[in-house]
């Protein structure tokens, strides 16, 4: 790795993420990044496609790709760089509604604290997943509540934060939508059952709740949780060991009769059968040196 003072940094930010606090701190962010890096370029992104396009510019051109946004923005960044041969180190300033991904690396939503992590420069490798032809970071979900994050209006999220999600969840608890799944893993595990919710996890938390405390984000494996039917469409069964089936694997396929869309890192994804593979330590990010996500 180059000397930090010889490194270049591209900083991308989503002006629509969070409640707009970051916009007031742009000069401060540039000042702090310039203390560490030889060259700092700051660019605003206008859409998912624009984020992906501009993030690709960093591959082979910048040593560090720093960015701000929520879990959706993080997913966009990963999809931009994961398929490239030269991948920059990621620096993250969380500014979304829930910021589940940031919790995995011990990164604070506080801008000053997040910048200190980037400045200190401790590099942490981490796994990502590939679902069909798309990359993801922390969760695939299908069934009850899986659509809440992408169905909640952006303006309402910006105004009410997490409360916007919780309100949407409460409207769903009395609905019961069971569907059939068949899960087959590369190591020949097979699980077939009726369920209200399936989670493929590489994360400690989902939707702001700690649901997988023993998750290890660079062990090369996913934790697959399949809920048993129960009260509130199985919402609370994710927290109870005897109320869900769990599979640990690095590669799997899931077939289903559900017409629901898969939720990929909080965003709307494909429908139907999926093929999932873990790409161990595929990317690197600046995180707390002492932080362990177990």
Automatic annotation (TrEMBL):
Domain DAGKc span(s) in chain numbering:
4-135
Answer yes or no on keyword Metal-binding: yes
Q: Which domain of life is it from?
A: Bacteria
Matching entries from SUPFAM superfamilies are given as:
NAD kinase/diacylglycerol kinase-like
Q: Which organism is it from?
A: Candidatus Caccosoma faecigallinarum
What this protein needs as a cofactor is:
Mg(2+)
Example GO molecular function: metal ion binding
Q: Which InterPro entries does this UniProt record tie to the protein?
A: ATP-NAD_kinase_N (IPR017438), Diacylglycerol/lipid_kinase (IPR005218), Diacylglycerol_kinase_cat_dom (IPR001206), Lipid_Phosphate_FormReg (IPR050187), NAD/diacylglycerol_kinase_sf (IPR016064)
Q: Name one GO cellular component term.
A: plasma membrane
- For this entry, the protein name equals Diacylglycerol kinase family lipid kinase
Tell me where the transmembrane regions lie.
none
Q: Which PANTHER family match?
A: LIPID KINASE YEGS, SPHINGOSINE KINASE
